[in-house]
Structures are given as C-alpha cells and as structure tokens.
C-alpha cells in the first residue's frame, strides 16, 4: 500500500475536497468540512498527480470534461472493492446510471451480494473519479453517497445537463 505524499483540501463548487496522491497516482478524493489548504508534497510525481486531479475535477465540475485520465493508485483497495469499482467504471459511463442490483449482476454475483456491493461503493476513496454517484436504487431513487445526497444529485444533474433536449418555443 502506498502512502500519500501530496495532499490538499481543494475548494470546489460542491464543497471542500480532500485530495491526496502517491508517486503512483491519486489515492483519495473525499468530501470534507475542512477549510481549503494549499498543496503540500514530499514527492514531485505525487504533486503532479495532485495538480492534474485538481484540474480534471474542476473541468468536470465546470461541465468541460467527461472522463478522468489522471492515474489512480488503487493499492489500498481490497480485491472485492477494487472489482466493484472497476466494474462500475467500465459499465457506467458519463450521463448514465446503474442500480445496485445491475452492478451486482455485472459482477456475476447473486442478489444476496447487493449489500456487499453497496458497502464497497460506500468505501470508495476516490469519489467523483470513480463514479459511485451513478448508482441509484432499483426504483431510481437516490440512495446513500459519502458526499451526501445533495452532492450526488448535483453530480447526476451535471452529467445529464448536456443530454437534455431543448424545449420547443
């Protein structure tokens, strides 16, 4: 497991984000109540990933970016959590949603594992970058999100904004 060697608390339109990176990539993007802080780094490569992540997240939140290319260091994830998040990332693109049940089936698991899948999503240390906000309840209802339901709604609205047809006048 890599330890973070660059970190910041970044002010975003959705609130403060704690962003951390190692020499292998971004390790953490989570919402925090902490005040913004300038980046600190013990490693120039980690600082580069941190700065890249900030730029890409800002671009995404401004509606100018639909995918992330910054490397992510997933070494702290358990095997199951990594599998869940990688399956989500591979099957649910920008502007789309999935359900816990559909994600569970995509993993080749039975219904009884839907709660385990939900737990893996709840432990996601790379919010926004690994899009667990795209997972909704079977009835389409918004369900838990580590950043809070208002942030989840805002992220889903952001992703759907360019997919809406203009109203006829």
Automatic annotation (TrEMBL):
Keywords: DNA damage, DNA repair, Methyltransferase, Transferase. Residues 80-160 form the Methylated-DNA-[protein]-cysteine S-methyltransferase DNA binding domain. GO terms for molecular function: methylated-DNA-[protein]-cysteine S-methyltransferase activity. The keyword Methyltransferase applies. InterPro entries: MethylDNA_cys_MeTrfase_AS (IPR001497), MethylDNA_cys_MeTrfase_DNA-bd (IPR014048), MethylDNA_cys_MeTrfase_DNAb (IPR036217), MGMT_N_sf (IPR036631), WH-like_DNA-bd_sf (IPR036388). Transmembrane segments: none annotated. PROSITE patterns: MGMT (PS00374). Pfam families: DNA_binding_1 (PF01035). GO terms for biological process: DNA repair; methylation. It catalyses: a 4-O-methyl-thymidine in DNA + L-cysteinyl-[protein] = a thymidine in DNA + S-methyl-L-cysteinyl-[protein]; a 6-O-methyl-2'-deoxyguanosine in DNA + L-cysteinyl-[protein] = S-methyl-L-cysteinyl-[protein] + a 2'-deoxyguanosine in DNA. CDD domains: ATase. The keyword Manganese does not apply. This is Methylated-DNA--[protein]-cysteine S-methyltransferase. The lineage of its organism: Bacteria, Bacillati, Actinomycetota, Actinomycetes, Mycobacteriales.
């Amino acid at each position: 497991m890599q330890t973070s060697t660059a970190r910041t608390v970044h002010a975003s339109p959705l609130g403060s984000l704690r962003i951390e990176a190692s020499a292998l990539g971004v390790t953490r993007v989570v919402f925090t109540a902490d005040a913004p802080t300038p980046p600190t780094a013990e490693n120039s490569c980690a600082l580069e990933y941190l700065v890249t992540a900030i730029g890409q997240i800002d671009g995404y939140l401004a509606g100018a970016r639909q995918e992330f290319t910054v490397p992510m260091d997933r070494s702290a994830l358990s095997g199951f959590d990594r599998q869940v998040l990688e399956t989500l990332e591979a099957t649910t693109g920008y502007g789309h949603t999935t359900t816990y049940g559909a994600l569970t089936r995509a993993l080749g698991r039975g219904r009884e594992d839907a709660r385990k899948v939900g737990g893996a999503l709840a432990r996601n240390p790379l919010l926004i970058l690994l899009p667990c906000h795209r997972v909704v309840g079977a009835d389409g209802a918004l369900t838990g999100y580590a950043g809070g339901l208002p942030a989840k709604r805002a992220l889903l609205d952001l992703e759907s904004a360019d997919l809406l047809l203009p109203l006829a006048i």
